[in-house]
Amino acid sequence: MAKRPVRGARQGAVIEDLLTLGDAAALVGKTTSNISYLVQYDRLRKFDTSGNVVARAPNGGLRVSKSELLDYVAGWNLRVRSRMEELKIVDTSIAFLDVPERERTKHVHRLHPYLGKFIPQLVGYFLSRYFEPGQTVLDPFSGSGTTLVEASERGMDSVGIEISEFNVMISRVKLADYEIPALEKEVVDVTRRTAEFSAREFPGGRRSRPLRAPVEGAGYLETWFAPRSLREMLYFRDIIPEYEHQDLLKVMLSRTARSCRLVHHYDLATPKEPVKGPYVCYKHKGKTCGPVTTILPRLRFYSIDTVRRIAEFKGARRPANSLVIEGDSREVKLEGRRVDGIFTSPPYVGQIDYHEQHRYAYELFGIERRDGFEIGPKMKGKGERARADYARSMAASLRNVSAPMPQGGVVLLVANDKLGLYPGIFEEAGMRVKRSFERPVEDRTERDKRPYSETVFLARLER
Ligand SMILES: C[S@@+](CC[C@H](N)C(=O)[O-])C[C@H]1O[C@@H](n2cnc3c(N)ncnc32)[C@H](O)[C@@H]1O
Predict the structure, then answer these.
(1) What is the dotted CATH code of the domain comprising 92-165+319-461?
(2) Tell me: the pLDDT tens digits for 350-370?
(3) The whole model's pTM is what?
(4) How far is the CA of 351 from the centre of ligand 1 (A)?
(5) In sequence order, what DSSP letters do the residues of 354-380 get, joined into one string?
(6) CB-ligand 1 contact for 345 (6 Å cutoff)
(7) CATH 3.40.50.150-classified regions of the chain
């Protein structure tokens, strides 16, 4: 059969070249949302089922061009490799460049955003090489729980220590065991009730008016959410105590809230002022973006996505014990517990504010902040004094948490140690560095797109 050219497409494209978003995602190992993003922001053109370039396709009739997609992916891979050259990294085995997005964000790893979490494949790579099923791995800076989730997939016991109560909640929610039908029933119910509330309060889908400048003295939530979004969020929050899976519902609401803040898309992690109206979006190639005025579409999406991810992890995990301890890793006592080794990515000096990034959740749920116990807090900067404090605190932490470990026990620590602090920290903690591995970091958020690499230090306990 003769192949019909796709009108308006580059030369050589044929109608057989058209793909649904789902097929396109499967072809290049991305998620359907990734492809939809590329289409929405003009990286790929939209076609209808007859091959016409269209501004809008009818429901279910949107297609993309396979050749355009493959060109896009090839261009991306080329950029990544040239960055590796710039960074002088030759060993690609722990770069995970070919790991598709859906694997990088598999099951519960994308249950909630978290700035500073590491790619699960990196954890998996080292756990499989340095630990055995049945052993216990410790992460003294467990953040959103990546190490513990990966350990559990391999039948390894795990212990996490984390200072932030909210991060502890995210990890425990990921690691809990659920009866999926009961969970789904609750998630569906709370979502339906929030939609009903919104329909009552804002009849006919009436848009709220979020675009006035915030009133002086207004709290964080009033400033960073449109009035309708905020009313919906507060309603949802207030009915949580009626349900069994309360922490999971909080995490789901928090994920929804995060994506409904009045922030510019190009500045999600460090927003400076609330969006007041449509704006030209740096992140989305000059497109006009606007403020979110209701949480409902995202809530519906995340409710389905949450249950799906939990169910997927349930199928992937093996019997293992995981424990998350809320506390300061310089102080928590682990005596009497088994710890065979450590895998961790600690905070670095003056880089990320781990509390502030989830301020909306702290305010919404009235969670106590422990900024003062963060090691290397952003607010103290990167000056000489901050570095010295950091090095002392990290050495104290590693010394404390390695107390129950056997001599020679392995310590794997991921850091972008551009200040060269770690050799001294390990020595002070009674550990000796045996090897280090360099890897490039891709997919950085925000505007800073400079090439960036990190080191995985392999040290052994020797004291
Ligand atoms: C780089 S993040 C870890 C991210 C983690 N690997 C993940 O994938 O989610 C470092 C974590 O250390 C935590 N932290 C900072 N100071 C701490 C302390 N004194 N004790 C325990 N945790 C601390 C921060 O709250 C943050 O979550």
Answers:
(1) 3.40.50.150
(2) 999 999 999 999 999 999 999
(3) 0.84
(4) 12
(5) TTGGGHHHHHHHTPPP-GGG-SS-GGG
(6) yes
(7) 92-165+319-461
